[in-house]
Design brief:
nine-stranded mixed β-sheet, 32% helix, alpha/beta, globular, disordered N terminus
């Protein structure tokens, strides 16, 4: 999944840790600390999450249900998304998200009954916590974020790099839960003020999206689900192979029944069927010379997924990739990667509007 690497599939936690009282230890800087482990600096390397998974024929996304048990991922399952990839794409994600969805979200949150502990926000597939770093400082009022992910390594970074104050200076606290989105239910979301996710929907099946919509509707909480791939890219200057690569990549996104570029539309339908008011807004990456590192990784992953889907493209795609990377290095390449953000305003619990 080339440009949807922000999430490890996550949901209700099978184990929980808390970072409510870690302000002194972490400083609450909102920045991901220096990361131990492998680095991805070679020119031809692809950071895990930016391209096809290392296992032959396996997508670069985490399975929704752990093969070891129904409640937890396998302990030895390799990471699908490196923190380096998530950190590389975070500025582009932040700029791309549909800011126009914030006002209707703020209005809905302002209408909720006041709670002593503030808003309870569940971030599904949080990765290193970029959604919280973007959204928490844009909302007024105390907030408690529940960060869900299957990867404990990413959960650590999400916790220590979480923001500590809201837009009005109110306290922001956080806890982490390791688990699987397939286990998310209305009961798990009981008391939630909001469910968020970034780059999640396109790595779900229709069944998973229906279950997520049902859980949010059952809990009566809105959902802000951002950066779902739309299946369209624009590169300058146009190349005869652009369309073939795009079509092959989109087919790769749909392997195993995943929604890929159909995700935002399918989610809008699912939430609407549960009585939610749904709004879709564009959230494109606009990558120029200042994003050369991200663009190069995205290109390698995008083309790599296309070739994995259609091996007969390997030879022309290799030449294509070389040309595109040369243009990127020279500062001559600009790319628009289209995404879609979704805001679903579910009916509050009890049916009142």
């Amino acid at each position: 999944m080339t440009n949807q690497a922000t999430t490890q599939q996550a949901g209700t936690g099978t184990s929980t840790s808390t970072a409510k009282d870690t302000d002194t230890d972490t400083g609450g800087t909102g920045a991901i600390p220096a990361q131990p482990g492998p680095r991805y600096e070679e020119a031809q390397s692809v950071i895990p999450g930016a391209g096809p998974a290392p296992r032959p024929g396996e997508r670069a996304t985490l399975r929704l249900r752990g093969t070891g048990s129904d409640t937890a991922p396998e302990e030895d399952e390799p990471a699908r998304y490196a923190p380096e990839w998530l950190q590389l794409r975070e500025p582009a994600d932040a700029f791309a998200r549909a800011h126009d969805l914030l006002d209707p979200l703020r209005i809905r949150l302002a209408d909720l009954p006041k709670r002593a502990d503030g808003f309870i926000i569940h971030d599904i597939g949080c990765g290193t916590g970029s959604m919280g770093r973007w959204l928490a400082p844009r909302l007024d009022g105390a907030q408690h974020w529940v960060l869900h992910d299957r990867d404990p390594y990413l959960l650590h970074f999400a916790a220590v790099a979480s923001p500590r104050s809201a837009a009005d200076g109110s306290r922001v606290s956080v806890e982490t839960r390791r688990g699987d989105v397939a286990l998310l239910t209305a009961d798990a979301l009981s008391g939630a003020s909001l469910v968020t996710a970034s780059a999640l929907l396109d790595v779900l099946t229709r069944e998973d999206v229906d279950a997520l919509a049902a859980a949010c509707a059952g809990a009566g909480c809105p959902a802000l689900l951002t950066l779902s791939v739309a299946g369209r890219v624009e590169l300058t200057a146009p190349h005869p192979l652009d369309q073939e690569i795009t079509e092959a990549f989109n087919a790769h996104q749909k392997r195993g029944g995943l929604l890929g570029p159909d995700a935002a539309t399918a989610a809008a339908e699912a939430f609407s069927e549960h009585g939610a008011t749904v709004r879709l807004d564009p959230s494109p990456w606009r990558l120029g010379p200042e994003h050369a590192g991200l663009t190069a990784q995205w290109l390698r992953g995008w083309v790599g997924a296309a070739v994995e889907e259609r091996p007969e493209l390997a030879e022309p795609a290799d030449r294509y990739l070389t040309e595109r990377l040369e243009a990127c290095a020279a500062g001559d390449l600009r790319v628009v990667v289209h995404h879609t953000d979704l805001l679903a305003l579910c009916r509050p619990a009890g049916g009142a509007e």
